[in-house]
Amino acid sequence: MLPSPAFVIERSKVRANIAKLRRLKEETGASLLFALKGFALPALMPDITEAVEGIAASSLSEALLGYHSSGKKVHLFAPAYRPADIPALLPIVGHWVFNSLSAYARYASLLPPEIEVGLRVNPHYGFAGADIYNPGRPGSRLGVPPAYAQEELPSPITGLHVHTLCESHAEAFAKLTEALTQHFSSWLRQVRWLNLGGGHLITREGYDISLFGDAIHSLRQKFPNLQTIFIEPSAAFVWEAGYLRSEVLDLTSTEGRSWAMLDVSFTAHMPDTLEMPYKPRIREALPEVDERYPTYWIGGITCLAGDEMGPYSFSEPLCVGQILTFHDMAHYTFVKTTLFNGVAHPALVVQEEKGYRIVKTFGYEDYRRRLSGG
Fold it and tell me: At 373, is the pLDDT very low, low, confident or very high (cuts 50, 70, 90)?
């Protein structure tokens, strides 16, 4: 029997997404990196790493996990680097991207010549549902702004990196490449590789692969010196390939609202739903709210007053013990979870072709170890 709560990753759907990304690679010549910030489950890394040229990481822990899970050198970017981490990073990094020219000046001399050095830029274009996810806005702390491109790019820098999209369509990608060309043409002519970051939701139904390919082709025509163009999608690998299984613990009502209280938390287990914000789909609910049917607000298990979502309508009244399934909960979920309130962390489960594989369950010891030395 499956535990509750649990993040369940459907391996067949992950493989179907990987197949689409392989075709994209063949059709466009783009090189794939897998970004651990959106999904980091070692149990499925063998499937993913077969399709990619490398791992994108933004911390020492991500870099170590990516390297040891794949055996491939890491493409590293972080807004700033801790000096104490550098010795452990040097043997496992193949591409090292700096967020600023000052960081480059401080640390570049420490890097051996076999590490490719890159610089992140901000083209003043971004596509995201909320500013918290948009690093392309003017004044962002992420990336060198266009005004700096009037200066000569230091010759040890062999690549540029940009990441200003979030779950975006091909039209946004094309606009990003246009903005990048407009503001950083002089630097693009001086480098041999370009990392166009993540946020490309290539595996979503209706994504215009042809337009994506045209934008890549246009970049290669304008800048024939670009030997490699990387993209680092994360959500695209696991789009609609997992769900969060939850159980109804209580049913109650307060001043005109009916509540279904669950064993999961929006703030602790699905933080993007409150940060973006967006209303996640519950598979057992009706597609739209319809007050002619039993309608509930969903309450999370933490004490945070805002740990709630709704309303949702159902064809039949809910009952205590019933399972509710939150759709598309593989990406940016368990990598961002917290142990706020000491709430039970959902188990990690892989749905195989025949049955389920429980990768890890969590309990009191996980909570205690996080807060104590013993």
Answer: confident
Q: What is the pLDDT of residues 311-359, one digit of tens each?
A: 999 999 999 999 999 999 999 999 999 999 999 999 999 999 999 999 9
pLDDT tens figures, 105-158? 999 999 999 999 999 999 999 998 788 889 999 999 999 999 999 889 999 999
Strands 74-77 and 93-98: parallel
Cα–Cα distance list, 8 to 120, 306, 325, 328, 359 (Å):
35, 25, 10, 10, 10
Q: What share of the chain is helix, strand, coil (3-state, %, to 5)?
A: 30, 25, 45
d(C-alpha 53, C-alpha 196), whole Å: 14
Domains of the chain are: 11-238 (3.20.20.10), 242-329+337-371 (2.40.37.10)
Q: Hey, what amino acid is at 247?
A: E
Q: Which helix (H) or strand (E) holds 12?
A: helix 11-28
Q: Which two tokens stand for residue 166?
A: 């979030």
Across residues 63-83, what is the average pLDDT?
A: 96
Handedness of CA 307, 312, 315, 316 (dihedral sign): positive
Start-to-end Cα distance in the chain: 32
